[in-house]
Amino acid sequence: VQLQESGPGLVKPSQTLSLTCTVSGGSITTSYYYWSWIRQPPGKGLEWTGAIYSGSTYYSPSLKSRTSISRDTSNNQFSLQLSSVTPEDTAVYFCAADLNWGRLVAGVYDYRGQGTQVTVSS
């Protein structure tokens, strides 16, 4: 399974960050993986933001009010939207997949994209 993130590298404060993860080598609808977004702010550790599994979504409590994860089954993609961003949302964003939700929350996963830098700045 291969994952590839795409989306704008620069977002202005108060706007919505939108990223897409394109999956190849496996189907997001027929596999039993949690398809997830993880981020790493500069100088900090990995932070799990949320996941989608069989159409159900799970979010980090600290980001839940601003996060939405959805999937496009026809294109084998899943997406992240993070609203009302601030400079604290600046990070490298990764999409990842694992059979175990707990492992993703702990920053462990079977598959991960190369990551994309997103900077929040005016």
Describe the structure.
The protein has 122 residues and is mostly beta strands. The chain contains 1 helix and 11 strands, in the order E-E-E-E-E-E-E-E-E-H-E-E. The protein has one helix at 101-105; strands spanning 2-6, 10-11, 17-24, 34-40, 47-53, 56-59, 67-72, 77-82, 91-98, 111-112, 116-120. Strands 2, 4, 5, 6, 9, 10 and 11 form a 7-stranded mixed β-sheet that branches. The chain has a 4-stranded antiparallel β-sheet with strand order 1-3-8-7, with no helix packed on it. A hairpin with a 6-residue loop joins strand 4 (34-40) and strand 5. It is globular, with a radius of gyration of 13 Å.
Strand content: over 45%
The structural class is mainly beta
Oligomeric form: single chain
Overall number of strands: 11
Rg from alpha-carbon coordinates: 13 Å
Residue share in helices? under 10%
N/C terminus separation: 36 Å
**Main beta sheet:** 7 strands, mixed
**What's the mean pLDDT score?**
95
Which overall shape is indicated by the principal axes computed on the Cα atoms? Answer: globular
Low-pLDDT residue intervals, each spanning 5 or more residues: none
The number of helices is: 1
Taken in chain order, the helices and strands follow as EEEEEEEEEHEE
Give the SSE layout.
Elements: E1 2-6, E2 10-11, E3 17-24, E4 34-40, E5 47-53, E6 56-59, E7 67-72, E8 77-82, E9 91-98, H1 101-105, E10 111-112, E11 116-120
